[in-house]
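Researcher: Good morning. I'm working through a list of sequences from a screen, and I'd like to move beyond sequence-only analysis. For each chain I'm collecting a predicted structure so we can compare shapes side by side. This is the next one on the list. No need for commentary yet; just the structure.
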Amino acid sequence: MKFFEEHFTIDHLKKAPHKWFAALCLFPIHAAEMKYKKTYHLKFSHAKKLFFFDMSLLSSIVILIIASITWFTFDPTISGLVSLQITASKDKIKSGDYIEYTISFENKSDISLTNATLTITPPSGFVMSTTTEKITRIDRIEPHSQGQKTISGYFFATPNQETKTIATLTYTQEQNTNIEVKRTTIFGTARNSILETILEISDTIIDKGSTPINITLTNTGNQPIESITIALPNTQEFTLSSSSSQKIAIDTLLPGQTKHIIGELTTRITNTEITNLPIEITPSIVVNNTQIPQETVRQTLTVLHPNMGVYATWSNETSGIPGSTNILNLTLTNNGNTDLVDILVTTELPSDIVDIISAKEKNQGILKKNILTITKDFHPGLAVLQPHRSITIPLFIPIAQIPKGNGTPLNLTLQPEIHAALPNNIETTYNTQTKTASIPIGTTLISEATLRYFTTEGDQIGRGPLPAVVGKQTKYWALINLQNTAGTREQIHLQATLAPSAQWTGKTSVSHGNDVMYNPQTRMISWQITSLAPFEKAGVYIELGITPTQAQQGQSPELLKNITITAVDPHIKQTLTTYLTPLDITLPKDPMGNQKGTKIE
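Model: Good morning. Structure tokens for this chain:
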């Protein structure tokens, strides 16, 4: 035979021994075939012998087939006559339910079974009752007898995952030492769990922000559940956390007890094409030193992509001058895919630079604790801002008369914050902010001019009768004091004009710089210094006389007028001018002199 010749070789013995063995089994047939070819092939004189030879060959094949079938199908055991079944007390079960398994066995043979042992292998999460044993020894099972064994306990498993319980019966036939095994399996699937998990969160969230969540765990069973953990997800798009932790751990949850876990969902979705966000949480419990996940709670959230462009620009002002009002135009543009409603604009105003009282009067909004708040009640356009729409809100920022500082240059930068709700009562709030360009703020040079006959201590510095008398000269002192504040001043220049009634006596005194200059032709006096450092003081003191005429009797004439002070503020690069009140002999800042008389007699 070709198969025999091809496979009955040394190489096939090494490489394919199963084919070599099959060829060996065919050797008798091959030998008979060779004998036939050599002796009988095409020799009809041996036809009778050939017939008997063919019949023998056919018989050999039939015997070989029967022997092979018998060899492979023969079972010396009686397991086919031993019945073993498992039935559960419940068809539908939750993870954590109490359940009973009944294992029934029957010996249908005529032979006694000895040294029988029944072993139950439940799932890893099966907590057996204290009176139940996994292994039961049965000394003898008589022919045509039966029995059963029941185990009970609490069935913990991952919902919707198949588990199996295996029953194994081992025994020996009487007067036989060979151990035979009969095994059966029952499959079970928990549909849900006694640990009920509820996730409460808004159905709609925003792409970047925080949304409150509430996870409720309830033990609906009649046994405590221990070692409950929930690993909260943390992905590229979002983070679920509770008390800034990524893991929730509960030691024990008693029957009927409910536990609430408060947390938040923080989203950071940058892809505007993401419109749905699936989230899921899975509580796990530890049973028999094995962590078993329980029912997974899933929820798909709708993702909105609110986006507001906030543009803050100053109206043609490059600096802030004390006492002036700067206007900040705040333009809000909805660049997102959803309406923004009930928009709130808040801006903190620094009280050391901004005149808070004046800001409250000039702006339509609420100013409390230096925070200016503008709502839809003051600006109707803030009620609803639809996508691709813009509104502009002017903020009036009055600069204080005397900005405060520590001697370093003052600058004003505001950081308006925008808070907007989303439509359909979505709990999440959209927040954004912007920062204005920094503008330099000028400072104030405080100046005061007074006319005195007596000093504040009561010393007399004037000369002549008081009140002034017609025909007699009375001399007063004009005191001009400068008090610098938080900024540097440069090129300070004082200029004033003597009134027609005033007389230049030539007596002057200054605290800084050169003496006072007087021009008799123009009757103008002037004084200047190069600079004043922050918080530095300077004074100019001028003696002025008057010899009243009869026509001036009963009057209080001026002695110094057109008092002007100019100075350069290098921080804002502007020259600031101050005009002072003319000085007359009413002596309003000299109480003693004022009491003695202010009208010419």
